[in-house]
Amino acid sequence: MQPSNHNLEHAAAGRIALPDSSTSPQVNTLLALLQEGAMNTFDIRAHGIQHAAGRIADLRIRGHQIKTQMVWATDDLGLKHRIAQYHLVKENTHDH
Q1: What does the alpha-carbon distance between residue 88 and residue 65 come to, in Å, rounded to a whole number?
Q2: What is the pLDDT of residues 14-59, one digit of tens each?
Q3: In the chain, where does DSSP find H-type helix?
Q4: Has residue 95 been placed in a domain?
Q5: Interior/surface letters 14-49, b for 16+ CB within 10 angstroms, e for the rest
Q6: How many domains does the chain have?
Q7: In this structure, are residues 49 and 29 in contact, taking their beta carbons and an 8 Å threshold?
Q8: Phi, psi of 25, rounded to the nearest 5 degrees
Q9: Does residue 15 lie within any of the structural domains?
Q10: CB–CB of 45/59 below 8 Å?
Q11: Cα(39)–Cα(37) distance, integer angstroms
Q12: 63: CATH
């Protein structure tokens, strides 16, 4: 089985590229994405952040207010899933 070019395809499509897969860059990237608007689990994974709920929990620990709404979404195979959609309600301005 060959490795997927999934991340390369998304980087080429103008997505934010992570410098590495450690937690801190993922949290910072996710915060930047949420500042642009609501994101669902599929959107977040497309940016290289595989454990969206964990990174959302990290942001909440840092004092950011994030609303979670469950929504239906269709994956690349056409299958429907109930997934989380996240919306940054209030940013902790002291977290920088």
Answers
A1: 6
A2: 555 545 557 889 999 999 999 999 999 999 999 999 999 999 999 9
A3: 6-12, 23-36, 41-46, 52-61
A4: no
A5: ebbebeeeeeebbbbbbbebbeeeebbbbbbbbbbb
A6: 1
A7: yes
A8: -65, -35
A9: no
A10: no
A11: 6
A12: 1.10.10
The range of the structural domain enclosing residue 62 comes to: 20-90
Residues 85, 79 contacting (CB under 8 angstroms):
no
Q: Whose CA is closest to 34, among 17, 50, 52?
A: 52
The tokens 């997934």 sit on which residue? 83
Residue 61 burial class via C-beta count within 10 angstroms: exposed 0-12, middle 13-18, buried 19 and up: exposed
pTM: 0.74
Find out whether 28 and 62 touch, Cβ atoms under 8 Å.
Answer: no
